[in-house]
Amino acid sequence: MKHPNQATLALQAGGDLGPLGRWRTQRHLARCAECRDEIARFEQLRQDLPLLAESPEVHWNRLAAEMKANIRLGLAAGECVRADERAGAGPMWSTARVGVALASVAVLLATGVVLERPGPTAARETGVVVQATADGVQVREGGQALGLMHSGTSREAVTYQVGAQGSVEARYVDSETGYVTVNKVDVE
Amino acid sequence: MSNKRQVALLALLGAGAALAQDVPIEGRVNINLGKDSPVALVSMSTGDSHSSSRGAALVLDLHMSLTLRNTGAGRIHGVALRVVSQEVTVGGKGSVSIPSLNVGPGEAFPVRIDMQLMRPTQVAGGPLVDVNLDGVLFQDLSCYGPDRLNSCRTMTAWDLEAQRDREHFKHILAQAGPKGLQQAMIESISRQSARPQLDVRVLRAPAVASAALGPVRTEQFAFLEFPDSPLQPVDGWAQIAGNEARAPRIQVRNRSAQSIKYVELGWLVRDPNGQQYLAASLPASDPALYLPAGKTARVEQETALRFSRGGQPVNIQGAVGFVSRVQFADGKLWVPSRADLDLGSLAKVLPASAEEQRLDDLYLKRGLEALVQELKKY
Questions:
Q1: Measured between CB atoms, which of A160, A167, A171 is closest to B357?
Q2: How far is CA A128 from the centre of its chain?
């Protein structure tokens, strides 16, 4: 049994096939469970897409319209050249071309998702950061850092205080000197 | 592990060790105490200072032990040293302060400075670290030093808190005897160990807005008012998004009869479970602040604070402010009383003063009798 290709099944799932193509595909689907499953997967995918489209930052509708237009343009262009190539080009070349088109669509889709989906990106920290570390307080910028350490004193025995102007201090009783010591780093 | 892997691991370790270089520390630390300084350098040791490689960065661990002598005529109650590395100019500076000192004329005292410098490339020649005397506070609250870090104000505030807390414990000793003092110390130590703390990072440059932080909202400050405070917080708000708080602004009014030149507020935040934490102190950003009696001014900062605990972000639900430090135009300082700190369970949230921390440590290490003798010195 010769199965319709992936593009045909995808177009069938979206109701985008012409009358003749739709009739031929429906005839095939009536006796092919494998292709019915494939159609079902395409339909599920299409049902999921509107959920993503609800996000105002994702231009899924525009993306889908562009994809449809590109697919139609590709198919139309293929039809135009097919008449000239029909003598020399066999079914294998046609399948490869569709494969390339699908791969392009997949790349376009993935790029769109990566570029436009509002994923939970981590908050980046730029500029100067002032913070307590495991054994001290530190002012850091990029690959450079200046730290004052409370060596020999456990973190639990240290009182940290932050200044909203950009400072952090560690106050502890120095185990060697016995004095309360306050280490502080500041942003200039 | 196979022999090949062992060899590869040893080679890797060997390469790491080769990258780690000894940096000669001697002669590369400048100590500058000032020409007419009331303290003199008796000795300095750079002990086991060393350098190591961490990834592509060079890490310098500097361990300095200084011994200073009080060469002045008054008792020293605090010393502040400014620590700067010209090699690591990350727009930051450090300081090491010793509050709660009680050093008489001619007496020596130790100061330990442990620093870590990290930079991506090799260390150039020249001084690695400059240690400059920034301030020396005396018993009569007079202060010596260039005071570039406002150390004199900070040490004076610490000394006022020390006097306040010593008086508190001396009063308990007088009223309830050693047993009462013992009970008070146990309560103080328990309160400090139970005090909730958050990890807070301060970002000087505005952070890049992130979807992970959630929507930004404006949170109004609620205020704890101390009856004896010369300053009244009037209104305030901060921008909150998830675990980040930024750009706090608080309007304050001088309700005293004197002009004010410095104000500092405390800032508490609440997590979704209602647990309160001390977020930060919020000093006035204007170094030339002058607030006459009856007038208002705004205390504001442009930094962003990120809160976490155990590596996990902690979302912020509320903001509470209170006045924590005021300096009048004549230089005198106001700090909250013990009664003020008992308001609104503040004492459970705020850290103990440096002096209370010292007395707690003294009690834990040397016992009740040593504590009683220490309190009798003042």
A1: A171
A2: 29
